[in-house]
Amino acid sequence: MSHAEVLIAAQPAPPKTARKLSKSAIAGYFLLTLWAILGIALISMVITGWDPDKLQTYGPRLLHGLWITVKLVAISFVLGAILSMPLAYARMSSNRILSTLTYCYVYLFRGTPLLAQIFMVYYGFPSFRWFFEDIGLWWFFKDPFYCGVFAMTLNTAAYQTEIVRAAIQSVPKGQTEAASALGIHTWIAFRKIIIPQALIVALRPYGNEIILLIKSSATVSIITVYDLMGETRYAFSRTYDYQIYLWAAIFYLVIVELMRNGWARMEGRLTRHLKR
Amino acid sequence: MSGLFSALGSFWTWLTTIFDPLCGPAGAFSVFFQNTMLACGNGWGDELAGGLKITIAVSLATLPLGLVIGFFVALAQQSEEKSLRLAAGVFTTIFRGLPELLTLFIIYYGMQILLQSVLAKFGYDGPIEINAFAAGMVALAIVFSAYCSEVLVSAFKAIPKGQYEAGDALGFHRVRTMRLIILPQLVRISLPNLGNLWMNLLKDTSYVSIIGLADIIRQTGIAVRSTKAPFTFYSIACLFYLTLAVISSIGLFYLDRWAKRAEVRR
To answer: Is any Cβ of chain A less than 8 angstroms from the Cβ of B118?
Structure first.
């Protein structure tokens, strides 16, 4: 039988090996440097090309364009939300004709590009000018801004219909059944039991839809609406100064990020009772 | 050899004209709209068909590029290296926040300026024209990849860690684990969302008409200017996009079924 007579003396800790630069670290630093170079190049471009005259001429115009963009998005989102309620109702109704018609509407507007829809409204509707003049709506379809609002409202209504439908259908059927077992009127049950639960599900898609709407609102600049993108294009066509696009990009990024973060905060606040 | 190629080429031309769904002998425009403004040849049918081809070509060329960039961005986003995550985060934040139209302009004019300044260093001072197809393809691919990376990251998260460990236990190299174990599951999980992105891509290709590529929208616009029948032509353009959407959703249905063939049928 053998056993150790002496304990091994305490050893010093092994020397720290130098942390080797892994491949991913190299790639990461390389890409970060690339971004940094790009950022510095853009900043230096802005600084060297800084022109107070241009700022004076086009600065207020850009801000006005920003205001138009915000107005466009807000109006069409709200109108689309209002329009989407009856549409979602029709989409879920048991009436075959009604649900097929709304399905076709939704498919039509989700399957075609917004640009085509806007062109359709702005260039296509004037073929029926006599009709619109008869019903007194010609002033509406004459103006590019209203055409943009019209097309974007129809477009976002189609998307929001799907959001509302998905949200309402995500509420388990047992909730409705429980309400009717308690003798609660269908409408009250819908308003006080289904809608609050559905809205929480719909929060995130609604936020995404607003962001998509902000981004797609740039499309109306093609039909000579002077929104942020339209003003940018106007200024670029006058000056051939590339940094105007960069300014527009910063504006859009700031709006979208503010919207995203604000919405996430609101969502966190509204769903705080669901957190464990 | 060149004779063979020219024969093959003429055979291909013959094949495409015979089976052209719009302007072939049995095409929709040639049969139903013989002597209208939609006829092929002296009408606008062949121009619209050409636009449709460009739209399909742009989206098909963008898809693989966007998928590959998106895959690597997704890998970077969930890497353990902080700098890599940051770089990928900057990429997705920028390109998911910018309107597609603005991205297109920035890349189109930016590439032009960049190339001009680089060539000026080498002493070339002539005017430079960037290919609209290439610029549109790159811009759309970048936008696509920014969204694609988000989809792939969430799909990566859905794959349990045990799968990687199983790969290690079998002695697979990391690349091999990725290719044989992770990728097939990744495709299956992310296919529905990738399908949605493809639909978006089809619609976003309409923006390349703004930088002068002869896609559906641009050809329709040209036709409208000379025929003064905007409603008809824009309806046809919408119909084209709808047809593409319907065909893709049918294709995606079968693709989804193919990807899920290994799952238990109930």
So the answer is: no
Tens digits of per-residue pLDDT, B162-217? 999 999 999 999 899 999 999 999 999 999 999 999 999 999 999 999 988 888 99
The domains located in chain A, with CATH, are 71-225 (1.10.3720.10)
Contacting residues for A122 by C-beta, under 8 A, at least 6 apart = A144, A147, A148, A151, A223
Tell me the pLDDT tens digit for each residue of A94-105: 999 999 999 999
Is the pLDDT score of B264 beyond 70? no
Report pTM: 0.87
Query: Residue A193 gets which letter from DSSP?
Result: I
CA distance A158 to chain B (A): 15
Interface test with B, best of A112, A114, A128, A244 (most B CBs within 10 A): A112
CA distance B154 to B159: 9
In a domain, B41, yes or no: no
**3-class DSSP state of B194:** helix
What b/e sequence results for B89-116 when a residue is b if at least 16 CB atoms lie within 10 Å of its CB, and e otherwise? eebbeebbbbbbbbbbbbbbbbbbeeeb
Q: Is residue B105 part of a domain?
A: yes
Residue of A nearest to B100 (CA): A215
Which domain CATH number covers B193? Answer: 1.10.3720.10
Structural domain tally of chain B?
1
Give the nearest partner residue to B210 out of A116, A222, A260, using CB atoms: A222
pLDDT tens figures, A33-83 = 999 998 898 888 888 877 788 888 888 999 999 999 999 999 999 999 999
Q: Could you give the CA distance from residue A257 to residue B91 in angstroms, rounded to a whole number? A: 14
Note whether residue B76 is domain-resident: yes
A245:B246 CB<8 A: no
Q: Give dist(CA B224, CA B233) in Å, integer.
A: 7
Radius of gyration of chain A (CA): 28
Nearest chain B alpha carbon to A27 = B84
Structural domain boundaries enclosing B90: 61-214
Which candidate, A205, A2, A168, places its Cα nearest to that of A92?
A168
Interface with B, mutate which of A19, A20, A31, A261 (most B CBs under 10 A): A31
With 0-12 CB in 10 A as exposed, 13-18 as middle and 19+ as buried, what is A204?
middle
Q: How many CB atoms lie within 10 A of CB B164?
A: 16
Q: Which residues contact A151 (CB under 8 A, 6 or more apart)?
A: A114, A117, A118, A120, A121, A122, A220
Report yes or no: B175 at the A interface, CB cutoff 8 Å: no
Q: Given this model, what pLDDT does residue B34 score?
A: 67
The reply to whether B128 touches chain A by the CB within 8 Å rule is: no
Q: Is the pLDDT of residue A172 over 70?
A: yes
- Residue B251 pLDDT greater than 90, yes or no: yes
As a whole number, the mean pLDDT across chain A is 90
For residue B125, being part of any structural domain is answered with yes
